[in-house]
What we know:
GO terms for molecular function: ferrochelatase activity; precorrin-2 dehydrogenase activity. By secondary structure, the protein is α/β, with parallel strands linked by helices.
Amino acid sequence: MRYYPVMVNLQKKRCLVVGGGLVAERKIRGLLDADADVYVVAPSCTDQIDTWSQQGEIAWERRFFEPSDTEKAVLIIAATNQPDVNLAVYQACQPQQWINIVDRPDLCTFTVPAVVERGDMQIAISTGGNNPGLAKKLRTQIEKWVGPEYGDYTRFLGEMRQRVLRLHLAESQKRAILAKLLDERFLDWTRSGELERRDREAESLLQGQESGE
Ligand SMILES: C[C@@]1(CC(=O)O)c2cc3[nH]c(cc4nc(cc5[nH]c(cc(n2)[C@H]1CCC(=O)O)[C@@](C)(CC(=O)O)[C@@H]5CCC(=O)O)C(CC(=O)O)=C4CCC(=O)O)c(CCC(=O)O)c3CC(=O)O
Ligand SMILES: NC(=O)C1=CN([C@@H]2O[C@H](COP(=O)(O)OP(=O)(O)OC[C@H]3O[C@@H](n4cnc5c(N)ncnc54)[C@H](O)[C@@H]3O)[C@@H](O)[C@H]2O)C=CC1
């Protein structure tokens, strides 16, 4: 078996996290970044989870898990330190629900990768459950190579691409402009903060092709 990598839109989707320790906190942070509707059930939790609850960013029920908690959730994460409770969460789920049991990779319908996050650009790393520590190590190495400028760079390339796709040109010409936009110099200008130069050069690339219609 090999995992199928996907990026999931969880905006406003009801997601249940059972447990409120550091592992739960890490998973909740990811769900909040994805704008999910997060629901936590745990008798105690970390300060960060408590803060999220007080700020209304999540709904925290301060109690032990009950099987009916899994109803209506599209995605469920069992992250308690009690193997029998995590198993009970699994048993309460329906086959069509997406489930992650943090101490039972064999029962997971999905696992959580380590992620390099640069705005809309995300690099997800999975070791297929072999060694999460390796996924984390590789993440920190890639973070050094793919710097914070990739956030702005990705947004810039996204905007330019939309404009190119709207041009009244042959597909082959659009592809040629898109290929030129990926030229290293646009990344270099983003990195060095020469944004006016970058935008000007990109503009002339588009204009040049347009005037050649
Ligand atoms: C299967 C999976 C299920 C899932 O959680 O989705 C899973 C399972 C388990 N993790 C365990 C331990 C640790 N996990 C981490 C860290 C991370 N674990 C993550 C994902 C995954 N962990 C999924 C597979 C991902 C893959 O395929 O590589 C990351 C990548 C993503 C995230 O959690 O956000 C995040 C790094 C985020 C980052 O920093 O980038 C650390 C290191 C640390 O915490 O510093 C340790 C301690 C060191 C060690 O044990 O290796 C244990 C033993 C528990 C016990 O001792 O009882 C199990 C259970 C088992 O393997 O049986
Ligand atoms: N997949 C992963 O990434 C990792 C998984 N683990 C596993 O995750 C487990 C949890 O780790 P931590 O967060 O560090 O533990 P922790 O001890 O800090 O937190 C456990 C949480 O579970 C809650 N809990 C206990 N019984 C409960 C119940 N009946 N209903 C609801 N909540 C209940 C507690 O209130 C607490 O908030 C570990 O025991 C380990 O097996 C550990 C490291 C990484």
